[in-house]
Amino acid sequence: MDMKASKKLGLKERYTLMTRDLAWTPTYQAVKDVFPLTEYEGIKIHDWDKFEDPFRMTMDSYWKYQAEKERKLYAIIDAFTQNNGHLGVTDARYINALKLFLTGITPVEYMAHRGFAHIGRQYPGAGPRVACLMQSLDEIRHAQTQIHSLSNYNKYYNGFQNWRHQHDRVWYLSVPKSFFDDAVSGGPFEYIIAIGFAFEYVLTNLLFVPFISGAAYNGDMGAMAFGFSAQSDESRHMTLGLEVIKFILEQDPANLPIVQAWIDKWFWRGYRVLTLVAMMMDYMLPKRVMSWKEAWEIYAEQNGGALFADLARYGIKVPKGWEQACKEKDHLSHLAWNTFYSYGMAAPFHTWAPSEKDMEWLSAKYPDTFDKYYRSLWTHYAREQAEGRRYYSTTLPMLCQICQIPMIFTEPDDPTKIAYRESDYKNIKYHFCSDGCKSIFDLEPGKYVQSWLPVHQIHQGNCFPSDVDPGKPGFNPLAEVLRWYRISDGIDNRDYADSPDKQNFETWRTQATGN
Ligand code: FE
Ligand code: ZN
Predict the structure, then answer these.
(1) What separation in angstroms does the CA of 508 have from each of 222, 267, 303, 449, 513?
(2) pLDDT tops 50 at residue 1
(3) 293 CA distance to ligand 1 centroid (A)?
(4) What is the 443 CA–ligand 2 centroid distance (Å)?
């Protein structure tokens, strides 16, 4: 037998045989009936084979790599759990950043899984179809590994137990939820620009680097391990996002204005979701990595700036809201944490006013704004609290119809004035936090009048458990909403200073380090 005949295939040949060659052109059915969603968004693709998968990964090698990563991850989680790793974190305030992650981010990883499975099915080209299939599997793995890594904390701390239930109900979670609902209800091309490009490529570093470095700085091996395990997937996702946008733009000049409008929209939507990350970085980490402002300067202004300079040759411009986002870097985290502090009874994690030392750090990082606009607010809250009047707002805020964040943002050029925008549609007024959110509404009002706004829903009586009667004397709407949220009042929520989490952590740590 001639051994030379069975020579090993090169990477490219192997990839072709095992991906492109597995696809075929249907003959019993028309292509447009098999892939019915590829035309209505107006994107024109002439030759799907022009898409080059940057990784040329085949399914068998995909499983091999992923299995290896899983083995390492679960070994680390095991070691962390068995060593009482939860007592090694800086202090239990840190754990609230994880509750924010589990309630806000993990469920949208799962949505990303569903979204990529859906669009993978809808693309007529075999290259993008295989890439989307792999990303879809990555995303469900991310959701699972996050749940597993964080489950150890659930044994010891409050606020982790109802994350799935809460994701569809609690006010601040409708911010990431509506972001993904919006994306998966777009067409397959809008979805890939929204998630693959605007989110994965432009913004993802501003989500994962802060959380994972935060974990590293605060002694949390559990979250660090899932972060590292996801990192190599992440670089594949970023590359897919970039390749897809270039492919779409190269296919037909008519695609440019459609793609630009999506970049404008999804940059702004993604950026608004990152408000939660900004406050986590500046206020929730006992040991901080860098400020939101510094992260924005590195990952958005420098990296993003270079990216858009590169895309300029396709005619792509910097997204519409870019300039405003850069102006807001000095304000975002302070406005957000103030909101969570004031509504600290309505979230399943703890809040607190920054200490004197924390404020020193904040004024050093925000020399132009912290002392001038925000310090007095925290000093006031701290004084009130010391006198037994911890401030909790008992009114409900107006929400932006698009990003669903309370109207907390200030005018880009006047930080003393709340920004309000509005549009009329079919004789009803809709409210927005910014020009960015207003213009998203104005392009597709029929879509966004359907938004499930948590505050509107409370006012309409849709957020109470089914056994209550709002007409009964003594009816307490806040208590009933919390019950519907499955937040145990006084345990999962309110100030860290008064929490069982704090008390337990201190007791356990004393036991672990003394006699
Ligand atoms: Fe992911
Ligand atoms: Zn908004």
Answers:
(1) 19, 44, 43, 50, 9
(2) no
(3) 24
(4) 14
**319 secondary structure, DSSP code:** -
Tell me the torsion sign for CA atoms 189, 193, 194, 200: positive
pLDDT at 133 over 70: yes
Whether residue 472 is predicted with pLDDT greater than 80 in this model: the reply is yes
Alpha carbons 157 and 92: distance in angstroms, whole number: 9
Residue 6: its pLDDT value, please?
61
How far does residue 12's CA lie from ligand 1's centre (Å)? 27
pTM of this structure: 0.95
Tokens of 124: 């007529």
To the nearest 10 degrees (0 to 180), the angle between helices 174-184 and 255-273 is 160
Can you spell out the DSSP letters for 144-172?
Answer: HHHHHHHHHHHTTSSS-TTHHHHHTTSGG
The domain locations on the chain are 54-392+480-513
Terminal CA-CA length for the chain: 75
Question: What three-state secondary structure class fits 30?
Answer: coil
Q: Residue 3: what pLDDT?
A: 53
Ligand number with the minimum distance to the CA of 405: 2
According to DSSP, the residues that pair with 177 across neighbouring strands are none
How far apart, in whole angstroms, are the C-alpha atoms of residue 33 and residue 49?
Answer: 20
Residues 120 and 250: beta-carbon distance below 8 Å: no
What is the per-residue DSSP string for 112-138?
HHHHHHHHHHH-S-HHHHHHHHHHHHH
CA–CA dist 352, 499 (Å, integer)? 11
Fold of 54-392+480-513: Ribonucleotide Reductase, subunit A (1.10.620)
**Phi and psi torsions of 470, nearest 5°:** -60, -15
Judging by beta carbons within 10 Å of its beta carbon (0-12, 13-18, 19+), is residue 6 exposed, middle or buried? exposed
Local structure of residue 495 (DSSP, 8 states): B
233 Cα–ligand 1 center, Å: 8
Q: Nearest ligand, CA of residue 432?
A: 2
